[in-house]
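note to self — DONT lose this again. spent like an hour looking for the file last time. sequence + predicted structure for the chain T wanted, 104 res
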Amino acid sequence: MATDRIELLKSLLEQDPKNTFARYGIAMEYANRGKLNEAVEAHRALLADNPGYGASYYHCGQALSQLGRYEEAREIYERGIEATTKGGDLHTRGEIQAALDLLP
């Protein structure tokens, strides 16, 4: 079933390569299936096209942290704080800051 969701989202992305919903959905499906490296790559692809999408910074950082890639997580969180501050998304900024504060 999860593979079907990923395939459906990929087909949406083929129709519209800039579809932020599809990119985010793919990343989250990978994370939910424990495919954290794929989730990171999907979040990074989304952020390359839409650098203001705060939730992807948070979830990408979470996946990197779970992989033990703490320095990369720190970098993505810092970029997320900058992007969400610039965009005025203070709620997401606070969540990212809290996650950053918990890194070893």
